[in-house]
Design brief:
- The longest helix has 4 residues.
- About 0% of the residues lie in helices and about 40% in strands.
- It is mostly beta strands.
- It is globular, with a radius of gyration of 17 Å.
Length: about 210
């Protein structure tokens, strides 16, 4: 799950070593990227961390951390922000966003006001569903809202990515009509502000 900062100066990605997921980053000098280094701010020893999203200004970082003592469930979404060039200690997004079940794969909108993620929390349509939260004027996240049955199915929907236009949502599904196990789809908001019928991205992106 690689992601650039908006100016493409830094690339964050997840690396797996001996079954352990950790977030790394590499910095460009304009010609080439540096040797990747662990993003130690979010690194938790002997814990899986990954599935991240970074704000457009590069100062807010959301990621998934599993089986940590500060967690609400097995895998939770955490947050850290950068002040005066330094990242602060990550915090769990608490019981409002995280449940006793699985929350992961956050995607922050370009304006920083909507956070999409995948979860197996109660109240969903199927196994893994895509949910979102809105940030209010006081900087408080709303309770999670299910994106609804146009996107979520009795199967599994995950890996959401909200385009900077705020109108296009990419995700993967194993239930919508596809070519293989999981396919990548996109849905666009319609005039009524509801999500439209998902479109399979087709071959050669999706295969059997």
């Amino acid at each position: 799950l690689p992601q650039f900062t908006a100016d493409q100066s830094t690339l964050y990605f997840t690396r797996v070593d001996k079954g352990q997921e950790d977030i790394y980053f590499t910095v460009s000098d304009g010609n080439r990227y540096s040797e990747p280094k662990p993003f130690d701010v979010v690194h938790a020893e002997r814990k899986n961390d990954g599935a991240h999203t970074i704000s457009a200004d590069g100062n807010q970082f959301f990621f998934t951390l599993c089986d940590d003592k500060t967690g609400v469930g097995g895998c939770d979404i955490y947050f850290t922000n950068r002040e005066n060039g330094k990242w602060k200690k990550p915090k769990n997004l608490s019981g409002r966003i995280n449940s006793i079940l699985w929350e992961s794969q956050p995607s922050l909108s370009g304006d920083g006001k909507t956070l999409f993620f995948s979860s197996t929390r109660d109240g969903g349509v199927g196994g893994k569903d895509i949910w979102y939260c809105k940030l209010d004027s006081l900087g408080v996240w709303s309770n999670p809202i299910n994106v609804g049955p146009m996107i979520n199915t009795i199967g599994n929907e995950s890996s959401p990515f909200i385009h900077p236009d705020l109108q296009t949502l990419y995700f993967r599904s194993d239930e919508h009509l596809g070519m293989g196990s999981f396919d990548i789809f996109l849905s666009r908001k319609e005039i009524n502000d509801e999500w439209g019928v998902p479109l399979n991205l087709g071959y050669p992106i999706n295969t059997d």
